[in-house]
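Thread: Modeling a multi-component assembly for a lab meeting

Hi all, long-time lurker, first post. My supervisor asked me to bring a structural picture of a complex we are working on to next week's group meeting, and I have zero experience with this. I have the sequence lines for every component (848 residues in total). Could someone generate the structure of the whole assembly? Inputs are pasted exactly as I received them:
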Amino acid sequence: MENMSHSTLRPAVVCGALLAALEAAEGQRRKRKRDQTPDAIGLAIKRELLQRAVQENPNPETFEEWLLRCAQGCSAPESAGAVSAMARAIFDEWSLAHSMNEFKIWLDSGAPSDDANEGKRKHSRPEAPESPPSSPSAVPVSISNPDLTCTVELFGVARLLARTKEISLALPPEATLSHVYAVLAAKLPMLVGRVITADGSSLSNGYACNVNGLDFVRNPTAKVSSGDKIFILSADAGG
Amino acid sequence: MHGFHGWLLHINLDSGQSIYHSLEEPRLRAFLGGIGLGTSLLYDYAPPGVDPFSPANPLIFTSAPLVGTGLTTTAKFAVVTKSPLTGFIADSLSSSHFALELKRVGVDALVITGKAPSMVYVFIDDEKVNIREAGHLQGKSPGETETLIRSELRNPAVWVASIGQAGENRVRFATISNEGRHAGRGGVGAVMGAKNLKAIALRGDRDISVAEPKNVEAIADSLRRRSLGSVTDKYRSIGTVANLSVFNRLGALPTRNFQQPTWDDAEPLSGESLTENNFSRKHGCASCTIRCERLFKSRNGEQRLEYETVFALGPLCGINDPACVLEAARLGDLYGLDTISAGGTIAWAMECRERGLLPEAQEYGLRFGRGDAFLAALRAIGERAGVGALLGEGSKRAALETGNESSYWAMHVKGLEMPGYEPRSLKTMALGLAVSPRGACHNRSGAYEADFSGEVDRFHGDGTRGALVAASEDFAAVLDSLIICKFLRKCFTEFYSESAELLSKVTGWSCTSTELQRIGERINILKRLFNQREGWNPKDDWLPPRLLSETLPSGVAQGIGLTPAELKEMIQGYYQARKLHENGFVPEKRLTELGIANSEAGGVSHADR
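Re: Modeling a multi-component assembly
Sure thing. I ran the full set together rather than chain by chain. Output:
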């Protein structure tokens, strides 16, 4: 926290945007065929925390502490774990928002959502500034009909940590590698802080990305195409 | 003098005489230690045109200024000689306690010439040199030899480098081994065997002096911390075996004697699978925080594996059974064999046998994927028996003897078998392999780094690669002469300036990054000059014909090839970057520019210690 700069986003601003995305996604959740009860419970807790943050407007410097107090002050002991988990998720999303330009742009443009606008835009692809947020949880929440899918293949440390060789990701249109890392961080949180940076926006030093076995791509703003195979591997090929 | 002792010990096994010579500061400053100092001494001590197995061929062990300073990854030493495999320079590195002890006996270099009348070992006890009879050690593995010598000397603090049967039998790719590690490439162990020298045992008490101890300690602390960051995660978490699955997916894993760059059956040998199924424990060299060494469970206990060993004893020979590869690696340690050259030579034999060209391999049933035959061939090489008599010569000589176009399948450069980087899909690496003074080498440059960086098109080569390879060779020469392990290289923000500062604090010299870069250049030019003196000609800077006539048949690089014109263009770019003649020879002017032809390089002088 002490590293936050003067440009730190107010938690209430970020939480308000997350709340909007949550509400927009709610309609989609109800359409799913599987039992939605656990999702509903989790989202209800998250919504309540987000609403409190908007109302109480905690300071950025004390936001983590504020969330901790919310979790500790939970009146129902059986829900304390869930509240803690949601508080941690909100704090991560708020932290992530600082390092991702797309997220800030998305906030500035009023946090538009594909879900909220569904039916109005149908098949049109939104421009980059209107892309859904890059936050690990915000992206999957807001993408119900992704225009783009890619496969991430994991090698070495990443594979051992994730215990999987590959994972398929649904991404927003015009997605960049930053989106890939953010979604990957949300799906495979064990990679965060080791293979993917703590803010979820890029790969840690020592890791590299290769697209389709052809190009090593360093720029996280490089666009991803549907069907791409994205390899996450060690940047060092010494043997 | 700080960082160095300023002494060279010359042991002549013909006469049994040992003489200390002073090493002058100008030479040490011009070449540092390790590979650089070794190259400089080789040029002076090797008679021009010397037969590698002749008693006159010097076997040179060198220490380096950073050794013993507590800096992580610096417990290393170099072995330099004229290679029996290539006829050019052989420079190999090994590491751990033997390196520290070499520094503690108070010399910067140990030069061994002559040939003992029977098998001996040399025990250097601080200043005293004892040449001892070693008939009882004949046929013993390096591990057994270390134990027996320690027991005989009744001192567990003695550190030993020795040869196995392969060295005794002059297998041209025999290693010198210490603590399970090897000075591996170029046949330095065969040169030691030719001198009837089974082992060198060391015990020393000399202090290692540094100019600014507190500042060196501060830098050491910083490097130690950096060495534990994400840039070394691969080495600390899995080890170099992590390369296999990546290379396979990128179409860069040479398989079945370079017939294909991918292998669908490679998974059991991937670093990830080995880690999940066979991992036993981590290990590291003395003074190292990275601890890249991985020991895997095998039928005989534990076995160390590196990527190059897995590649050469696995996919290159069409073998994917981890138990077989682990056993082959154990045999490599037991006999003291360079596993890259062993695998490369057997892969050549397998291909020849499958094409009906090598009747000697018939009785072994050598074929790609035949593990039992493969292990039998490895034993035969170590013992120089049966087909091993031929294969122990290395693929280049074996092919020349076999004839019938079998040279087409001999995958070597200058006689040194190729490492596990497919040159057709790694074009910068292709150039690095072609022009390396010690032959097909992945260590004296990190040319592959450009291919894995995204800064160049790895499927297409052009003249611009020359400067990249030259810079990479110079960088490696400085690392290998300071000595700092290459696995630490990415922990530096600006390598040359940080290393210059470090060297200054250790030695008391005032070094600059420009000076270090120039030292790297000087070392590489002197290597070329040595090779030139020993008969190098432009056709030696080239790649095996298969690589220049067959395109890759599978994987993401399918259809990619390497044309002679493309390689030639890259080589010309390299000669230009190195300021060599168009045909690769070293101009006199370059020697003057780099201070090789004048007194800057200094010399050795006979002196009493």
